[in-house]
Amino acid sequence: GIPNHGILRIGDTLTEGEDISFRGVPSFAPEILRRIVISDAMKAKKLREALRQLAEEGVVQLFLPNDGSGALVGVVGALQLDVLTTRLQAEYGLDTKYEQSRFSICRWVSSQDPIALKSFVDAHGSSMAEDIDGAPVFMASSEFSLRYDAERHPAVVFSDVKDYQRDGAGKG
């Protein structure tokens, strides 16, 4: 195997000197968002490290709210939560539970106008997060809320798919 500490991701290509560039595997907006809770607060740092490693592997998506509240995990189906729970226990010795999040939808946000994007992020601080690459993510409580904000901020693009490229990571 190849030792990997956040350097390689699913979809990366290794060569022996050729300069090859492929589009990476895209990230899709999760169907389920949950706040993860650990039973032993003394293991919070270990949980953050474990979640980051598992997110890099593609087990879950990790969202870190800008307001400093606890991490949110995003998954496509409930089975992924079971896999996450099992792996956190077996590989990291962490007992965790999930809480319902007030958010049900997330979208990566971007804009050709950096001022418009900054204004949107600043105005929606408690509804903003960053993904594992540091890309801004808007968290909405409902489709209505998402449409409402999208209509009021036409310069901001709300995307349910994030293309991943090493040199373009985090640019939505």
Order of helices and strands: EEHEEHEEHEEHEE
Question: Whole-Å distance between the termini?
Answer: 31 Å
Unreliable residue runs = 166-172
Lateral arrangement of strands in the main beta sheet:
5-2-4-3-7-8-6-9
CATH architecture grouping = 2-Layer Sandwich
Question: How would you describe what is shown here?
Answer:
With 172 residues, this protein is of the alpha+beta class. The protein has one domain (24-167): Alpha-Beta Plaits. It is 28% helix and 24% strand. It is built from four helices and ten strands; from the N terminus they run ββαββαββαββαββ. The chain has helices spanning 44-57, 78-92, 114-123, 143-152; strands spanning 27-28, 32-38, 61-65, 72-75, 96-100, 105-110, 128-130, 136-140, 157-159, 161-162. The strands form two sheets. It has an eight-stranded antiparallel beta sheet. A hairpin with a 5-residue loop joins β7 and β8. The chain is globular, with a radius of gyration of 17 Å. It starts with 26 loop residues before the first strand and ends in a 10-residue tail after the last strand.
Give a quick rundown of the structure.
This protein is of the alpha+beta class. The protein contains four helices and ten strands. Helix content is 28%, strand content 24%.
Quick tags:
172 residues; 4 helices; 28% helix; alpha+beta; two-stranded antiparallel ribbon
Helix-strand blueprint:
Layout: E1 27-28, E2 32-38, H1 44-57, E3 61-65, E4 72-75, H2 78-92, E5 96-100, E6 105-110, H3 114-123, E7 128-130, E8 136-140, H4 143-152, E9 157-159, E10 161-162
Antiparallel strand pairs: 1-10, 2-4, 2-5, 3-4, 3-7, 6-8, 6-9, 7-8
